[in-house]
């Protein structure tokens, strides 16, 4: 079949041709947009799930929805050990520019940008040389006195308030979308929770939508006890059989192609319903098929090639980041779980490796920081990447 017309799109954060299985989340966010626009209180949203389930894609879809509704919207990706001020300033700058198109008072917009610039400039060390100081690229005079104390918690509360006031003038809201939220520094998580708490109390039209790994709720709860009530948590998982079939058949029909029932069954079995894998194996099956309809034999022929590509890019790139001690830890997890995507007890892992639990703590902590594992609950550990155990057991 013509590879140029191949409709499937396996890629990091790349929107699939058919966003199947996410209607519930999309409809819920549509309600949030309407409620906030009408001055009704609404909680911020946190999406959690393993790698490859489509959290980043869904964030992009929610951002597009906000833009279509006339909202200001900005998106950022948290990075380990990097402070929040710079990327958040850029994201809110984008959101304010979205609102400026609809606002009738240029002076009001400029004032908001001036406060945002004051907030952003605090990202530079006070003793840094002029040539080394970061400039936020906001071409307005600085408005001193708000959001520039240097205390991120105080400043973020004030900045969110100022930006929300601008959105209220237009009769819409602001959506701030944060990917990889679990990688925020402890102080930044605390500040973000405090700012969202203030927003919920005042009913200000600014909503934070965060996305991260399954342990993100625990990260937020450890920062502020009230975070359990502050956010609405939504777990994003693999697709069920019906939605996985839709993700494959709808794009194929647009290209005048079909898949047999046996092919769909084989694709679901090999992909496990994880959206990234559905796209990867679907793309390989299309390229392997001689003609429509794509059948189970095409899937079986294509599966090794797709698996090899995932082994290098999706799995291999993560495995290469691990040290020998960390690889031993990962291999032990895979052997205990027998390649299944399920958590394992750390005590059993220590016994399996013939080690004392305390001696494994450095490897465990490093793997947590690298985002390769997460603590499902106290005394248990799990892979953040689906099928990672199967990959480890299948290596030579």
From TrEMBL:
It comes from the Bacteria. One of its GO terms (molecular function) is ATP binding. Residues 168-275 form the Cytochrome c domain. Keywords: ATP-binding, Heme, Iron, Metal-binding, Nucleotide-binding. Pfam families: AAA_16. Residues 1-21, 341-361 are annotated as: Disordered. This is ATP-binding protein. It comes from Actinomycetospora aeridis.
């Amino acid at each position: 079949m013509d590879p140029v017309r191949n409709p499937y799109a396996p890629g990091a954060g790349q929107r699939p041709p058919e966003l199947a299985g996410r209607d519930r989340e999309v409809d819920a966010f549509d309600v949030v947009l309407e409620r906030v626009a009408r001055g009704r209180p609404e909680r911020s949203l946190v999406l959690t799930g393993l790698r490859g389930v489509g959290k980043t894609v869904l964030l992009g879809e929610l951002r597009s929805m906000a833009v279509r509704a006339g909202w200001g919207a900005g998106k950022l990706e948290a990075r380990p050990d990097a402070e929040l001020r710079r990327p958040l300033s850029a994201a809110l700058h984008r959101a304010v520019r979205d609102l400026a198109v609809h606002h009738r008072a240029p002076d009001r917009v400029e004032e908001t940008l001036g406060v945002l610039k004051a907030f952003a400039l605090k990202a530079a060390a006070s003793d840094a040389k002029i040539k080394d100081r970061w400039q936020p690229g906001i071409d307005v005079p600085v408005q001193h006195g708000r959001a520039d104390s240097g205390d991120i918690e105080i400043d973020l509360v004030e900045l969110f308030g100022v930006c929300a006031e601008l959105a209220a003038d237009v009769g819409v809201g602001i959506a701030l979308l944060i990917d990889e939220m679990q990688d925020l520094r402890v102080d930044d998580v605390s500040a973000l929770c405090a700012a969202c708490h203030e927003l919920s109390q005042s009913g200000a039209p600014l909503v934070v939508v965060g996305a991260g790994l399954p342990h993100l709720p625990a990260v937020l709860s450890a920062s502020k006890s009230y975070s359990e009530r502050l956010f609405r948590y939504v777990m994003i998982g693999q697709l069920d059989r019906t939605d996985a079939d839709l993700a494959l058949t709808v794009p194929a029909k647009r290209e005048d192609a079909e898949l047999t029932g046996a092919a769909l069954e084989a694709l679901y079995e090999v992909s496990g319903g994880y959206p990234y894998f559905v796209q990867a194996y679907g793309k390989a099956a299309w390229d392997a098929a001689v003609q429509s309809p794509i059948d189970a034999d095409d899937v079986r022929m294509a599966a090794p090639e797709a698996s090899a590509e995932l082994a290098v890019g999706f799995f291999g790139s993560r495995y290469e980041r691990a040290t020998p001690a960390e690889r031993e830890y990962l291999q032990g997890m895979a052997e205990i779980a027998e390649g299944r995507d399920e958590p394992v007890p750390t005590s059993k892992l220590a016994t399996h490796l013939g080690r004392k639990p305390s001696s494994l703590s450095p490897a465990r902590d490093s793997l947590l920081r690298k985002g390769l594992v997460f603590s499902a609950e106290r005394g248990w550990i799990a892979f953040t990447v689906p099928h990672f155990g199967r990959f480890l057991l299948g290596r030579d």
